[in-house]
Each structure stands twice: as C-alpha cells, then as structure tokens.
C-alpha cells in the first residue's frame, strides 16, 4: 500500500466532508428536493430552457430555473437525505473519485457517491441507477471496490486519527437493476451490503 496514495485519499475525504450544522441543513434542503435549481443571467435563460429547464422565479437581472433531477442524481440525493434523517451529522458534500491503482502511468479512480459518518460508523456508498428496469453486470464495479477497500479504510484513519476506530460499512444501492446471482455472491464475498429500491423505500 503506497503511503502517498493513502494520504491523497485522506485529503480528498477531508475536503468534501460537511460537519457544520447549518451547512448540513442547507445541503439537506437541496438534496431532499426532487428538483435541481440554478440561478442564471436573464440573457442566458433561453439556452437552459432548451435543456428542459423552466423558469421558477424571474428577478431583475437573473432568473431561478428548475428541472426534475435525473434518476441517478435523485437516487444519490435521496440516500444522502435518508442518512441525514437517520442522524449522520458528517456527510460528503459531493461525490469523490478516489485513486486505487495505476496502469501504464494512468491512475485509476473509483467514484464514491456518499460518505456518511457518526460516532461509531462510516458508510461508503455507491449508487447505481437505471432509467428502465433490467439486468446489469456489476462485476467490474465490485472488483474495483474490493481493490480500494483497504486504502479507503487507511485514508479514513489518516483523516480522523488513530483514536477513531469506526466500523466501516460498504454499501451498493441500486434502482431498476436486477442483480445476477454471480454479482450477489461477489458482493457477499467482498462484504459489500446490497440495497435495492425495495429496501430504500422502507426508510
């Protein structure tokens, strides 16, 4: 395990984690909405309307626009909001791409969608969503996660210090994806928890 890679992971985690109560509430309001919202100059409104944005509020110089979140972003935001309601008071503000390997001098990176921490646990969550229900091969994703687990755990320890010894829980959350038996077995072998939309709806 390369020490510098662990330090990079720790630094990336520290850059995106929110623990301020007011900032968390602000982020929660944004995540808990089914709409994404932006403010743009009035001169640019037509460009956005062509991309399915609609005007929700027009000001003197700017306008607020909104549109339905895409299915993959909505899944991630819904999960973020659930963890907040469950009492996690330190959460990542955005997805993060963590280095896990190198091939031909190209650093491989793995996207992590949600990191959530309380006093005893750290959740590392990847979200996979499809617009229409169907099968999807997750072998590549699961194998990448398996390769990265040790370094993420070390990065978490480098960020929070040796005194914090959390239970690190790995989770794949999927929507409209039918898991194959082989993928389920691989997830179990890698100690990765699997949640589908059926379990998420419970929360």
Which descriptors apply to this entry?
203 residues; alpha+beta; 6-stranded mixed β-sheet; 3-stranded antiparallel β-sheet; 11 strands; globular
What's the main sheet like?
A: 6 strands, mixed
pLDDT average, as an integer? 90
Q: What's the overall geometry?
A: globular
Tell me the fraction of residues in β-strands, as a range: 35-45%
Distance between the termini: 37 Å
Measured as a percent range, the helix fraction is 40-55%
Count of helical stretches: 7
Structural class: alpha+beta
- What is the β-strand count? 11
Q: What is the H-and-E element order?
A: HEHEHEEHEEEEEHEHEH
Gyration radius, in Å: 19 Å
| Strand order across the largest sheet | 1-5-8-9-10-11
Q: In terms of per-residue confidence, which ranges show pLDDT below 50 for 5 or more consecutive residues? A: none
């Amino acid at each position: 395990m390369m020490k510098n890679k662990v330090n990079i992971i720790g630094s990336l985690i520290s850059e995106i984690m929110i623990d301020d109560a007011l900032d968390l509430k602000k982020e929660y309001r944004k995540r808990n909405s089914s709409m994404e919202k932006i403010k743009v100059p009035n001169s640019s409104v037509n460009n956005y309307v062509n991309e399915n944005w609609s005007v929700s509020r027009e000001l003197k110089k700017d306008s607020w626009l909104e549109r339905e979140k895409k299915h993959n972003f909505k899944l991630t935001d819904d999960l973020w909001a659930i963890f907040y309601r469950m009492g996690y008071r330190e959460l990542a503000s955005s997805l993060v791409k963590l280095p896990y390997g190198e091939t031909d001098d190209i650093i491989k990176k793995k996207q992590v969608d949600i990191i959530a921490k309380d006093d005893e646990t750290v959740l590392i969550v990847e979200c996979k969503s499809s617009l229409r229900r169907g099968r999807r091969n997750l072998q590549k994703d699961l194998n990448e996660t398996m390769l990265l687990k040790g370094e993420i755990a070390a990065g978490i320890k480098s960020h929070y210090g040796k005194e914090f010894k959390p239970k690190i829980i790995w989770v794949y959350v999927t929507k409209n994806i039918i898991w194959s038996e082989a993928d389920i077995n691989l997830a179990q072998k890698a100690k990765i928890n699997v949640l589908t939309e059926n379990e998420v709806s419970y929360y």
